[in-house]
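Bug #77: duplicate submission created two jobs. Keeping one. Sequence:
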Amino acid sequence: MELNRYIDHTLLSAAATESDILRLCEEALKYNFYSVCVNSSYVAIAKQALGQSKVKVCTVISFPLGAMSTEAKIYEAKKAIEQGATEIDMVMNIGRLKSKNHVAVLKDISNVKRAIGLIPLKVILEISELSKNEIVKACEICIDAKADFVKTSTGFSKSGATLTAVKIMKKTVKNKLKIKASGGIRDVETALKYIETGVHRIGTSSGVAMMLNQTSESIY
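Kept job's structure:
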């Protein structure tokens, strides 16, 4: 099992410099990670740095709060795609979900997905802010909205991914959506536990450390 091909090599810090983004891309090329995940203003730089390689450019929109208008999310997503993004991770409108305004949440995701077409859409639920029932409902809405993935966390809230939440997500989406686990996944052992649970992608800023500290040659 090639762990590197599960990894979205991530750098979303507000203080990340252009040099940091270029280093991220160099690392992704060296270890053949699935993608780099950067803020949308850095998509063009990442795309240029990665050239014609197989490493994809993933970006986040309405990050990290999810509280932008749908129109703003669509504009940000389309602009990122124009500049080379091939995957979009959008933050769900968590306040609307907690208000039980499920129609608004559905429309928000559906409209973004419709606008970006075949580009994979991952919806970040921010599980640390949600109850078990809210996680289930969020997943059901993502299925109805025709998203491609549900994702655990931004990594900017009070906590990140948990195996418990991923199991709830997997039980809800079954094989209808893929799952991305992100937030606090920093070592090979933890990453493998998530993959065994049914995760299709790992969002982490510790991908290089995982490759350097792997415990089995068969992992990479």
